Amino acid sequence: MRKMGTQTWLFENKIYVNGASTISGPREKDGPLGHTFDYSYDDLYCGEKNWELAERKLLQHSIDVCLQKAKVTKDQVDLFLSGDLLNQNVTANYVARTLPIPYLCMFGACSTSMETTAVASALVDAKFADYAIAATSSHNATAERQFRYPTEYGAQKPLTATTTVTGAGSSLISRNRSDIRIESATIGKVMDYQIGDPFDLGSAMAPAAYDTIKTHFQDLGRTPEDYDLILTGDLSAVGSPILKDMLKEDGFHVEDIHNDSGSMIYNSEQPVLAGGSGCACSSLVTYGYVFNQLRKGMFNRVFIVATGALMSPVMIQQNETIPTIAHGVVFMREEMSE
Amino acid sequence: MSKQFHPNNYKDTAKTYQPRPNVFLNCLKAFFVGGLICVIGQGLIQLYSTVFDFTEKEAGNPTLTTLILISAILTGFGVYDKLGQFAGAGSAVPVTGFANTITSAALEHKSEGLVLGVASNMFKLAGPVIVFGVVSAYIVGVIRYLIQQLM
């Protein structure tokens, strides 16, 4: 059966990650997971003239590394699914312009990493594609400029604010066997619990993560014990405890196995306030650290729940609250020695 | 789901999870950084009025210009935003903060060209200050005029 319960897709064919790549900026390199990235740039410009070009370079680089690792050429890829945080998804669109690959543009704010992965897996499962790339990027300076203030503006941000991660992550998905299998995905609903503060996205997104995780357990008849890790995207230091308390009320105790990409990607000495955020936050942690742990056998089954705040500065100024969403994908370790 | 996480109450519940800023410490930082900027300004007035032969009233303009220049340079080197995160109002309220809003916006839009990028965006943050400054000056001026006529 492909559809389980109300919102979960269980893939019928075995779907695998054939290659995954992580390219980061300088601040992420200095964080505790810096050694897990394939490449890190030493400055935010990545050798380009402006930040938008820098973000494109990150995404382009991550696709190149991903294909190299998977030993697949661009011509073999049937679909490219990508999105980012910028208006009109310019990073993804302009990178797609350089690729000879049919393209689907996606936007789910910071949940785009798992949105593209889930949809790519479904299309590969249904044999609409043999190889599909799911890729996302975010850049601290381009996001700051679009959603907040100019980067060099000296306004004091509250402690609940997060720091957009600079980086890009790609994965190549196919039915060819590899050491990481994509088992299922839960597509989230848009939730809005009346938070309108663009400097407190962790609180805004926690209910979306709660809903997706709870529905996932119900749809598959599972409990937190079935997982070695439940990783949220960017709930940060504020949203994570809210999520745990919300799930606890429903009898799902995730305290020991939950972690948040935004809390893992930087160390406590870095000036990042509540933690990391952005599309690249969940993809860097997942495609780097989590995949390494799966390969090593430290994890067997993980549930990655990428959270997204579907925020628009114009809507905020019109006194609207922030709709949020979370999409989850289950990755499993596949024993290659069989 | 319990009452506290009900969508109608969620906003209040979420507040209990937020880290509380240390208001006293923040005030102290703002006081000292803001004060330091004013001390530098005072020092510049002394410098201009003793060394360069300005009267104390005339020394005001070159002092402002120097502070604005320093602030613009610090913004360009990526220092002023860090100072702002540390000092809050202490670095936002003085004229250096105003200079920072203009310089940071101008820098931000450099890649969109000199006219439609830099020139049309540099007052994006400073614009409201100028608008309300002019409007309130006008209102205060009218009130003053009326009082003078009545007296």
UniProtKB/TrEMBL annotation, chain A:
InterPro entries: SpoVAD (IPR010894), SpoVAD_sf (IPR038369), Thiolase-like (IPR016039). It comes from the Bacteria. GO terms for molecular function: acyltransferase activity. This is Stage V sporulation protein AD. It comes from Melghiribacillus thermohalophilus.
From TrEMBL, chain B:
This is Stage V sporulation protein AC. Pfam families: SpoVAC_SpoVAEB. The chain crosses the membrane at residues 30-51, 63-80, 125-147. It comes from the Bacteria. PANTHER family: STAGE V SPORULATION PROTEIN AC, STAGE V SPORULATION PROTEIN AC-RELATED. InterPro entries: Spore_V_AC, SpoVA. Keywords: Membrane, Transmembrane, Transmembrane helix. Signal peptide: none annotated.
